[in-house]
Automatic annotation (TrEMBL):
Transmembrane regions: 6-26
Protein name: Cbb3-type cytochrome oxidase assembly protein CcoS
Keyword Transmembrane part of the UniProt annotation: yes
Species in which this protein is naturally found: Alteraurantiacibacter palmitatis
Gene behind the chain: ccoS
Keywords linked to the UniProt accession: Membrane, Transmembrane, Transmembrane helix
InterPro entries: Cyt_oxidase_maturation_cbb3 (IPR004714)
PANTHER family given in the database record: FIXS PROTEIN
């Protein structure tokens, strides 16, 4: 029983820390351009002239 009393606050704390990290990532612009990286991988970098 004492294990449950210790693990529940730890689980709630970790959940709140994960939620705070998610909101921080949203506010800092981590999810601004989700399609940009997906289309950049398809772009060809061989268009540069040979030196």
């Amino acid at each position: 029983m004492t294990g449950v009393l210790i693990l529940i606050p730890i689980a709630l704390g970790l959940g709140l820390m994960g939620l705070a990290a998610f909101f921080w990532a949203v506010r800092s612009g981590q999810f601004e351009d989700p399609d940009g990286a997906a289309s950049r991988i398809l772009m060809d970098d061989d268009d540069r002239p040979a030196a």
